[in-house]
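Risk mitigation, structural track. In case the binding assays with adenosine monophosphate fail to produce interpretable data, a predicted complex structure has been prepared as a fallback.
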Amino acid sequence: MEISLRTVRIFNRLLRKPFGLTSYRNVTGTAVKEEVNAELLNSFNQDIRNGGVVPVFRRALLFPTRVALQDEFGIYTYAGLYQAASVLSQEISAQLVGESERTIAYMCSNDASHIIAQWAIWMSGNIAVPLTPLHPPEMLKYYLSDSSASLVLCTQEYEKVLRPITLEMAKPLLITGRDNVLTAQLYQPNTSFLKPKAEDNLDDIGRSNSWYGKNEALIIYTSGTTSKPKGVIWTHSMLQTQISSLHSAWQYSANDVVLHTLPLHHIHGQLNSMLASLAAGARLRMLPSFVSHTVWSRLLGMGERDETKVTVFHGVPAMYARLVADHERMFADAKTREYVRATLGSRMRLMVAGSAPLPAQLFLKWEEISGMRLLERFGMSEVGMALSNPYRPVEARAVGCVGLPLPGVAARIAAVREDTGELEPLVTVETPVPETQICLDRLGLSAKDFFVQSEGYEWQAPKQTIHKELADNAFHGELLIKGPAVFSRYWNKAPKLDNSDFTEDGWFRTGDTASFEDGKFRILGRTSVDIIKTGGYKVSALQVESAILDHPSIADAAILGIEDESYGEIVAAVVVLKDNTKLTLRELKDAAGKKLAPYQLPKTMLVIDIMPRNAMGKLDKKEIRKLFGKQLELPKVK
Ligand code: AMP
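Fallback model:
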């Protein structure tokens, strides 16, 4: 029997009884010092050293009385979520007749029910497949069938959507009621409320840490903007490495109050915002979805108690664009604007943007209105977070760049050789693997006795290897990623690595074109859709989009390459204009011509009302092309 499982059992027994331990503060407390932590923490770290993984739900036992979550319905401690998840995990195990390592698809709103469902799936030793109600039934059917879901789990509000689908597909459906969430809300480890009945065997919550070290946790479907969504398998070990990487690079702390508005069927919301914060003992404030004026009011935190005021926000560029537009509408006078800037600038610790390119003009505008420099990072469902601007010094966060590899990530630029057609490495930049030991001290919790001294807690300087000397050392080509948190296969796809995803020596081919210059990576776009080959030049759609968004009349823009007889492809612009403005192609070219070379300028332009974007706020170029491609063609030369 492993030491940690034994300790966890002792702890579970304590959770069932009124607490007799020293100096517990209640739900709003910040410092947690408890005798049991030392033993538990040491055993967890021992397990990690032996190759095990301490899943996020089990880390909750290190800070049970802290507030983990505040959603629309109430406040939940870590112990409360853990307790509710353990009850649900028994229902899951009963449904699956004890079987484990099965895929369980679940649909919950962005609130406690999501965390409880996910932790319950993990406690029962199964693989969580998050679904979103934003997807139509046909897509949901695809996810259920592709992931070979053994069970579908949802809250009552989604029964209407999932009942007919599960009936048609002959899949069992488990509905979790609100009582489960109430259990979490009301549960306090130092009360005997909802004390489990004696026959409940809570001593066996979850598998051992070494089991989690070898097993799969999550399936995240790719956005499928260029092909059918593929299920990326996330192991518990990948999650643990990524969480450690983000903790050391962006300095997560138990004192963070994280405003969560991102969808949870995507790695950005799951990892950066939710799991990494919960693993740090932070307080999550979850909104059901992103609504700009609600986000503004939470960011400003007027009338709220200090310990609930938001300090961290993770968003996609489209969210920041909405916040900027509402800022212009809502905060008209100079005094209010100054108040907004002073409040955000003094209180927010970190505001991160990613999952899609952050246009330069938005980066600068956000700094102007909030006093905060956004930290832009690059990530993918397959690799989690890979590249990031620095956390410190703040001034080094650069416009239009995604910085350097995060801890544990190796990034490479490679180009296809014209003579042999082989992919040739140009430059590799590699950051040492992060320390995965849990250190409460680093998270702003507990006492010095637990500090584990190691350099790995810092984001260390990467090592750079130039494979091919170039005159200007500006490397340009396909972005490849390698490291312990990179996925190894898609669900339901042949287990053999196929060369279109990985190189023979195990580098993941991202499908993005990037450059590495002056010590920074820059993303130029998806090679298949954003790199436009026009008249012998290669144009990055992202660079053109960023430049034309500077125009005062343009609210939103997408650049496409449209097939053309003379040029191969032409650069074409689809734009949404700001209210009461007009714009001709000539005017756009005159303005953009100050920043772009003539061959980068759009040759055709179409004004539309609403830009097609997916649930993550990314431009849906497949849809844009389908809807508007024909209208963007140049007239045929007779
Ligand atoms: P997904 O797997 O849905 O997260 O999509 C990953 C893709 O989003 C990447 O391959 C990039 O094309 C794009 N992406 C993510 N972050 C950035 C960024 N900071 N700048 C530009 N593109 C990004």
